[in-house]
Amino acid sequence: MREPAPLRQAATVLLVRDGTAGLEVYLLRRTRGMPFAGGMTAYPGGGVDPRDADVDVAWAGPSPADWGSALGCDERLARELVCAAVRETFEEAGVLLAGPAGGDAVVPDVTGADWEEQRQALLRRDLSLAELLAARGLVLRSDLLRPFAHWIAPPREPRRYDTKFFVAAVPEGQEARNISGEADEATWLAPSTALHEMAVGQRPMLPPTIHTLGQLEPYSDVAAVLAGAPPEPLHAITPRFETTPDGTWAVLPDGTRLRLVVPLPS
């Protein structure tokens, strides 16, 4: 027996858009060499950085205190998680949930060389989100995010994350791009298509991705997703695992069983 690994706070964002055949979600396939979830399909996201707690970040929309109520945590952690969600979405997908102060506009284009220089500085931690927004005269738009799910890794895992999942529409004029350096594929898929590819072994996923795709599946479009965000606060899900003659299963607290599919050989 060993002591459980310490929990690290993390934020993940389900970017959604209206495709020609209905709702689509942006998915990244992490490179196989990654120390965590290598080869798995996931959403943009990552661990909270100490500078995500910066109280100087320009802010619009629900306050950190409001987010604390929604996420079931204190105000400081809520600030960190929302900032991490916005920062990671920009770092990994090139989508920035920010806009000018005092209005509903969102920055329409973040693809220029100057933007890329700042994105790289964020990745190196040479620049904080607060500094980027201040330099651009922008505010973080927390109103563009919705709380969606909360997962805590079980004690047996060697890397453990306490992860809040958010959902957000890609702002008009922006486009998600495969620029993270941590993925060998980025794609937009209908939730049902992604789940089918997982079931046949083409797209391995961890249980939180499987379950949240299932949560998205009933929604017809972005507006329905944003209007149907879960009630506050989120309830944490910690799975346990069972191995049977039929395979390995993640069993959720409500009894839901998610079959973990072994990926096909590459």
UniProtKB/TrEMBL annotation:
Q: Which UniProt keywords apply?
A: Hydrolase, Magnesium, Manganese, Metal-binding
Coiled-coil region: none
- An example Gene Ontology molecular-function term: metal ion binding
The Nudix hydrolase domain, residue ranges: 6-211
**Is Transcription found in the keyword set?**
no
Q: Which PROSITE patterns match?
A: NUDIX
The cofactors it requires, by name, are:
Mg(2+); Mn(2+)
Is this entry keyworded Cytoplasm?
A: no
Taxonomically, the superkingdom here is Bacteria
How is this protein named in the record? Answer: Nudix hydrolase domain-containing protein
